[in-house]
Amino acid sequence: MENPILKLKNFNVYYDDVRVVNNIDINFEKNKITAIMGPSGCGKTTLLRAINRMHDFTPNARVEGEILLDNEDLNQMDAINVRRKIGMVFQRPNPFPTMSIYDNVISGYKLNGIKLKKAEQDEIVENSLTKSALWKEVKDTLHKRGSFLSGGQQQRLCIARTLAMKPEIILLDEPTSALDPIATQFIEELFLDLKKEVTLILVTHNMSQAARISNDTAFLYLGDLVEFGKTKRMFTTPENKRTEEYLIGKIG
Amino acid sequence: MKESSLKYRQFKDKAFLFAVYSVVAISIIPLFLIIYYISKMGISAINWNFLTTLPKPPGEAGGGMANAIVGTLMLIFTSSIFAIPISIFIGIYLSEYQESKLASIGRYCLEVLQGVPSIVIGIIAYLLFVKPFGGFNALSGALALAMMMIPIIAKTTEETLKLVPLAIKEAAIALGVPYYKVILKVVVPTGLSGIITGIILGIARVAGETAPLLFTAFGNPFMSYNMLKPISSMPLIIFNYSGSPYDDWHAMAWGTSFILLIIVLILNIIAKIIASRWKIQF
Amino acid sequence: MNKDRFYKFILSSSVVVLIALVAVILVLLVENSLMSIKEFSYTMFTKNEWDPVQKSFLLISMPFALFLALFLGEYNTSGYIHNFVKSCVELLAGIPSLIYGFWGLFIFVPMIRDAQMYFGVIPYGVGLLTATLILAIMITPYSASLAQEVIRLVPRDLKEASYALGATRLETIRRIIIPYALSGLFAGVLLSLGRALGETMAVTMVIGNSNFIPKDLFSPANTMSSIIANEFTEATDPLHLSALIEIALILFVTTSVINLLGKYIIKKMVIK
Asked: How confident is residue B45, by pLDDT bands cut at 50, 70 and 90?
């Protein structure tokens, strides 16, 4: 590991007394895409949501262990600051339907009560939309609501909304599972571009997606981290028997 | 770029949470105040005499409201006989033929009927069943109450039956059962708890209704079992006695209020229990 | 006729009876108020001015209802506290109007009277303020349960997106939940207003029944429904009777329009 930005140590997540993520140690590399894959119910989404403390609103969820962001323990930090540093893109595109495209992009600032000058706002909106490859398509309809956008465009709007907050890490929770193949390809290319600036952690149940765009891959099975390593190596010579079985479709 | 401090934002968040909890606490206090006062003043007025004798003129000790209890029971029973079958039929129709024109007009009519102020229902019942027959009568009161029950029961029936999964219906149809039997023997029993909840809520709603009875059942100081003559009822007693200047009549009104409140609360609680315990899992 | 068709016939004729009933209500009210409508032309409509209660009650009731709804629909969506508060709200909504009026007349009115003595205004006790407060207590549970349903319709992923951007709960409520639910909340206000308009017994008992336009909040007043309740059995003059039925017609039309509009808005929101 050359340059880890986020480290999980002895990391556990419980729902009531049921442990759904078992004692995981994992390091995420800076400016890389790390894929987390595994069959449904393996705890991959739970793990992802635990990273930016989305479980604070689930009354029966409990997290144990350390999460270090640049060697700072996130559990000691306020959840709001954590989420500002670690953004998230969800499974289904969820732009705010009551806001225009423009307002959606700067919604993070508005929601956080941060006052910006008009010029600053414009700059952030244009920058973020450019980075999410949506600027050209929406620059003339910025002040309309985003509901007429296609699914893929909506998802890129959500990515722009996340990028606007200049996070260090973006968590991606199966971000293309609700999209068609062309939109998916477009967004995958976008991720490859984005990793120059941010670290991406991608939960996916799509093996070929993990193979196409990730640098490292973690394979989770029933809450255990079965195998973790370079994607290329894992897809060609898996060390663990269960990883191999998953990759050839025996479990899943 | 100006940013308010995190501490301040979290303080506002906590303060709002506190405000929400305080307002909730204040909002439910009236429930306990009402139960407290009505029980305190009402229980002392109630005794065997109160439940079994007829009202006496003001100034004379004793007296009860046996006629009002009988009147209320008769009114509720009669209105249920009118309201329950037709409401259930309407509910079944609305859930079975959801898309039909008749159903959508019927649904609008239910909304309208449910929104009609009870005093207006009273006037309607007066115009329909009192004026043409030349006198106040219990039946007109029961029909007024029935008009108020129909939307409640029909809507709960419709909503419950809509929840019955198509697969259950199809399973029965696949067995070669005629459609009407599928509805009566499979769909309705599956939604029975919901329908019963609706009936109880409908009864609870009309048990305390006064406005529709003012110009229909009217009230009667004597015991009457005749549906074609005026009849007393508990709400009418409370309304008439509370407006009187006599202390012993006020006490009667407290006692009657207590009984009415208990009946209505118990009916509501039963409906809630049936709705949650009896729920059929699909 | 085979059984299936007979069965469908019974069902559909029940619905026809329902529709006929509503039509009969409308026809009867119009027919019986014709005399008054001809006599006074449209002046009766200005009697709406007798209903300041409904407007002032909204100011008190709506904030309470919104907070209750946020409590039940956002902060505590399940568990013991939720069930307890929800049961209390349902029971409050289930208590008959008459009981509220009776309780108001004997417990609340003396309290108001004391307050009026203290402030040196004529201690009627009964009046606009008392009626408004009773109405607020009665209607808040209904408004709250409507608003709660609407708030629950706000998709979870929108709220999560807001939290993921670092917003606090309050910020999410103000900027995401309320704007999303706005049309439904507006419908809730409408429906509550409709409820309050038709509310008769409690208001009749504590408003003091004065046909003069009230000078201030403490004065006795009247509402459309309390006029009917008070005067209908004593109205011997056909014109008086017809005027009262015209008030009933106005009440019927207003509440029907309000109800249909309110339910329509909510239905549209559910589909969205």
From this structure: confident
* DSSP label at residue B155: H
* Chain B residue nearest residue A84, CA to CA: B6
Q: Which residue of C has its CA nearest to B150?
A: C18
User: Does any domain span residue A234?
Assistant: yes
Q: Which CATH number fits domain B64-277: 1.10.760.10, 3.90.180.10, 2.30.40.10, 1.10.3720.10?
A: 1.10.3720.10
Alpha carbons within 13 angstroms on the beta-carbon side of residue B84 total 14
pTM of the full structure: 0.87
pLDDT tens per residue, range C190-230: 999 999 988 888 888 888 877 777 777 777 778 888 888 88
Q: 10 Å Cβ neighbour count for C73?
A: 22
Q: Is A111 on the interface with C (CB under 8 A)?
A: yes
Domain that holds residue A225: 4-96+168-247
Please report which residue ranges of chain A form alpha helices under DSSP H.
44-51, 79-85, 101-105, 107-111, 118-131, 135-138, 151-163, 181-194, 207-213, 231-236, 241-247
Q: Which chains touch A (3 or more CB pairs under 8 A)?
A: B, C
CATH number for the domain harbouring residue C230: 1.10.3720.10
Residues C10-20 pLDDT 10s: 999 999 999 99
User: How many CB pairs lie under 8 A apart between chains A and B?
Assistant: 22
With respect to residue C262, please indicate whether it lies within any of the assigned structural domains: yes
Interface contact A57-C163, CB threshold 8 A: yes
CATH number, domain of A92, equals 3.40.50.300
Q: Do C158 and A94 touch (CB under 8 A)?
A: yes
Chain B CB contacts of A116 under 8 Å are: 1-2
